[in-house]
């Protein structure tokens, strides 16, 4: 439990809240009428969640280490798989949010919402499973 509570309690609460929000939207999809607002919320919530997780995992230290080597790297390498996959999925979420206002039908906006939420859930799962894997293996981080 130390892995998800303590310094990272806010990130854990944001993560659990996002998963609950996406699940609730899925179960109530027949009743929801304004999918554009929900897509914007996925973008904003995802931004806050990912920024908090990056601070939690010391990603800024990995970037600084890659630039000048003046400090120890964070948990994930600046050019590691977590950064690459996370960046690609974040770009997909932003693209969905940009396209949403130009889609005229609510069914199209619903599809963009679930695409954005799905990308965020895959990103969350990938990073969190990497953290658990490091913790179970006793590793201190991703080395390149």
TrEMBL record:
Transmembrane stretches in the record are 6-27, 39-55, 75-100, 112-136
List the keywords (alphabetical): Membrane, Transmembrane, Transmembrane helix
Superkingdom in the source lineage: Bacteria
Q: What is this protein called?
A: Uncharacterized protein
């Amino acid at each position: 439990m130390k892995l998800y509570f303590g310094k990272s309690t806010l990130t854990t609460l944001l993560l659990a809240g996002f998963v609950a929000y996406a699940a609730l939207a899925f179960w109530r999809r027949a009743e929801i009428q304004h999918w554009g607002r929900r897509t914007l919320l996925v973008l904003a919530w995802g931004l806050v969640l990912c920024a908090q997780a990056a601070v939690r995992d010391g990603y800024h230290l990995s970037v600084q280490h890659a630039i000048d080597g003046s400090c120890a790297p964070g948990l994930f390498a600046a050019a590691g798989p977590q950064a690459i996959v996370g960046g690609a999925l974040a770009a997909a979420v932003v693209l969905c949010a940009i396209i949403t206002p130009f889609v005229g039908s609510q069914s199209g906006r619903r599809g963009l919402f679930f695409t954005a939420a799905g990308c965020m859930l895959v990103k969350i799962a990938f990073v969190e499973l990497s953290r658990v894997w490091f913790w179970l293996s006793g590793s201190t981080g991703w080395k390149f």
